[in-house]
Specification:
Layout: H1 2-21, H2 29-42, H3 51-69, E1 87-90, E2 99-100, E3 105-110, E4 114-119, H4 130-133, E5 135-144, E6 147-155, E7 168-173, E8 179-181, E9 186-187, H5 195-214, H6 223-257, E10 260-264, H7 268-271, H8 286-299, H9 301-314, E11 318-322, E12 347-349, E13 358-360, H10 361-374, H11 396-399
Helix pairs in contact: 1-3, 2-3, 5-6, 6-9
């Protein structure tokens, strides 16, 4: 599988060089297909990649350029060996021959590999279920620090969802309290690694730093140091999988309970900018800002919104975004914004003499978010929205 994945990555790089080398009028799908066939004949080790997987690389590359021309993504780039995740596509489902062995394991046929056992984590349309639950149209194999994973593509026939008649809710995202709802519900989580796993990770990081300091400049990385890096990546991948599982379970519960979900339109990229500054104008509280940036990145607020977008739509509800400024300083009881009302991260005390409302700061912010939606200040609905932006330093007219 590693040989196929590296061949697929090399095929992408060859296509990228071929595309940039040819004149604009000679670039076409047929010419690219002929170039791929010729490369597979002349380069022996490219034959490790099945022909259908090579066609999938070509299709993905052309789609990347279309996304660039439409302003939805940046220009396709060269895929480096050490910074690119390994993956292989199997675009035809009839070649997989998926079968369930027993409750926990299944078998699948991988082209040029053979029968491979995989962990059965979700029901697939097999046998008599093919007609009513759709059919398998392909698969994608992905490798991370924990090993190889397979994701099946399934064509389903989902009926139009019925209208959701649940209540409306506003959600405030944070670091201390990941999700605070306007009805007083809060979703939180603990550490993604156990105490023993965190101690092991710290020991491995210290060991890797010591071995790296002893390595001379330009010297090849030793196998011992590489194994240490692999163990570090394995622990971090385990924490990431646990976080993603928590996000899926939480967003599914929210989508099933509430008909309308309102969130803030946060500019996360601007929120995690560095505060280091310049030598002439150095930044303030650089270490604190770096820690806050790491905490924001670890919570993955953008992925939470993406999960809520399609899950609310599938459940018959909707997701809306409202402007973010002022939601933490405004009092949800009287509507006034008084300086100093948010006394701490968790306590909000309205300084308006006629109000004096006291409550949780995150709960207050979520109530303000829902209030903005009810006042008609919602932006374009997040579910089904087409994001159109101009990629930086890319001119679509000349890129073609």
């Amino acid at each position: 599988m590693d040989d196929q994945a590296h061949a697929a990555r090399t095929m992408w790089n060859l296509l990228h060089d071929w595309w940039r080398m040819l004149p604009r009028q000679k670039r076409s799908l047929a010419a690219a297909d002929a170039a791929i066939r010729q490369a597979r004949k002349e380069i022996d080790w490219l034959g490790a990649l099945p022909a259908q997987a090579a066609q999938a690389v070509l299709k993905t590359y052309f789609q990347a350029w279309k996304n660039c021309w439409d302003g939805r993504a940046d220009e396709p780039r060269f895929k480096a060996r050490l910074r690119t995740g390994l993956s292989v596509d199997t675009p035809q489902g009839r070649d997989l021959h998926v079968a369930r062995v027993h409750r926990r394991w299944g078998m699948v046929s991988i082209p040029k590999i053979g029968r491979v056992r995989f962990r059965w984590t979700k029901n697939l349309p097999l046998g008599s279920r093919v007609g009513c639950e759709g059919r398998i149209t392909g698969a994608r194999l992905i490798k991370d620090s924990l090993g190889w994973h397979i994701a099946f593509r399934i064509q389903t026939f989902d009926p139009e969802p019925e209208a959701h008649h649940g209540p409306e809710v506003g959600i405030d995202v944070g670091v201390t309290v990941p999700l605070a709802l306007s009805d007083g519900t809060a979703y939180s989580h603990g550490k993604w690694l156990t105490v023993k796993e965190r101690a092991t990770l710290l020991d491995l990081e210290q060991r890797a730093a010591h071995r790296k300091s002893c390595r001379r400049h330009g010297e090849k990385v030793s196998r011992r140091l590489r194994r240490t890096y692999d163990r570090i990546q394995g622990l971090r991948a385990r924490a990431k999988h646990r976080h993603l599982d928590w996000q899926h379970q939480t967003t599914t519960a929210i989508a099933r309970t509430y008909s309308t979900v309102v969130v803030e339109a946060l500019q996360i990229t601007n929120m995690v900018k560095r505060a280091k500054g310049t030598p002439d104008q150095p930044g303030r509280s650089v270490a604190q800002k770096s820690g806050l940036n790491r905490a924001i990145a670890q919570e993955a607020w953008g992925r939470t919104v993406e999960l809520l977008a399609y899950k609310t739509q599938r459940a018959g509800g909707s997701l809306h975004e409202v402007p973010a400024p002022g939601t933490s300083q405004r009092c949800s009881a009287c509507g006034h914004t008084t300086p100093g009302s948010r006394e701490s991260q968790t306590v909000f005390v309205c300084k308006n003499p006629d109000c004096g409302w006291t409550g949780n700061a995150d709960h207050n912010a979520s109530r303000n978010i829902l209030h903005l939606y009810r006042m008609g200040l919602a932006l374009v609905p997040a579910a089904g929205r087409a994001v159109v932006r101009r990629a930086r330093r890319v001119k679509p007219a000349t890129a073609r």
